[in-house]
Amino acid sequence: GTHHGNPNMGVARQLDGPLLAALLADHPLHKAWCDYWAAWCDYKFGHMTSAGGDWFEHGAAYQMHAFSKVNRVMAAWESTQPANLNLFRKRLAATWRATIDQATPVDPRVGARLFMGIHNSPPGFVFESLEGVGTLAPSNPELAANLKWLWQAAGADNKNLREDFHPLYDRPWIAAKEPAIGSQIYPGLGVVFRAHPGTDESWMFLRGGYHWSHAYPDEGNFNFVSRGSVLVPWQPYQYYWADYKDFSLFNTVRLG
C-alpha cells in the first residue's frame, strides 16, 4: 500500500499502522498485520535513506515530521521482535548519527546549535532527539548519550519544549556525552565541512545531491560559520517565506 501524497508525508501518515497492529495482540490477524508492516517498513526505510544515513527530505520541519515517526514505531518492533529488527535499529542509528554530524555551530542569534535545513525544510531546534534517546537507549546507549547532548545543545535548555516532546522520552540513567564531529560527505545531500569544533569552530555546508521532494532542489546553496560569526547565514524559510528580510533564500555563487 502507499499514500497519494509525496513520499515523506505518506510515510509520516502510515507509520501509525504498525503501532496499531502491535496493540492488537489478541486479534487472529495480529501476526499477519505485523509481518506486513515489518516488510513495508523495511522497504520504505530503505527508500527514504541514502548512503551515510541521510533522510531524503532534509531539515528540522519535514524530515522530523516523518523521521520522528520512525522513532515511535520502533516501540512496535521492539515489542513484536520481527526478523529484521536489527536492520531497523541500524537504519535508525545511522540517520540519527547523520543528524548529529550535521548540527551547525552555535548561532549567536538564538544561542544554540541548529539542525541545518535545505529546500523546503528550514533550520531549527532538534526537539525530536529526546525521542531518539528513549528509542536507542536499549540497543545503542552510546549514541543515545550523544543524542542527549544534541537535545541539550539544539533544542532543550534554551527553548520551551512543545508538549509532544515530553520528558517521558528521557532516560535519566543516560548521561549526555558530546560526540566527536567532523567533516562528512553525504551523496544525496552535499558536504559538511567542519574544523576546530568548539568556540573556534568553522563550518560550511554545501548543498549538492539527488535528494529532492516537494520543494525547489536548492543545488549550490551554502552556509558558512566561523568563530561564532554567521558569515553566510541560513534562513528559517519554508514555501518561499523567510524571517530575515536582509538575506535572500539562497546563497549561491553566480558567474557572469
Structure write-up:
The chain has 256 residues and is an alpha+beta fold. It has helices spanning 7-14, 16-23, 30-48, 62-80, 85-101, 129-136, 141-153; strands spanning 184-186, 190-195, 202-207, 222-226, 229-232. A 5-stranded antiparallel β-sheet has the order 1-2-3-4-5, with no helix packed on it. Helix 5 (85-101) runs parallel beside helix 7. The longest helix has 19 residues, at 30-48. It is globular and about 60 Å long.
Shape: globular
Radius of gyration: 19 Å
Please provide the count of β strands: 5
Biggest β-sheet strands, sense, barrel: 5 strands, antiparallel
Ends distance: 49 Å
Provide a count of the helices: 7
Let me know the average pLDDT.
83
Question: Which residues sit in consecutive blocks of at least 5 with pLDDT less than 50?
Answer: none
Strand order of the largest sheet: 1-2-3-4-5
Binned, the helix content reads 25-40%
Please state the structural category.
alpha+beta
Order of helices and strands: HHHHHHHEEEEE
Strand content: 5-15%
Secondary structure elements and pairings:
Elements: H1 7-14, H2 16-23, H3 30-48, H4 62-80, H5 85-101, H6 129-136, H7 141-153, E1 184-186, E2 190-195, E3 202-207, E4 222-226, E5 229-232
Antiparallel strand pairs: 1-2, 2-3, 3-4, 4-5
Helix pairs in contact: 1-4, 2-3, 2-4, 4-5, 5-7, 6-7
Sum this structure up briefly.
The protein is α+β, with helices and mostly antiparallel strands.
Features:
256 residues, alpha+beta, five-stranded antiparallel beta sheet
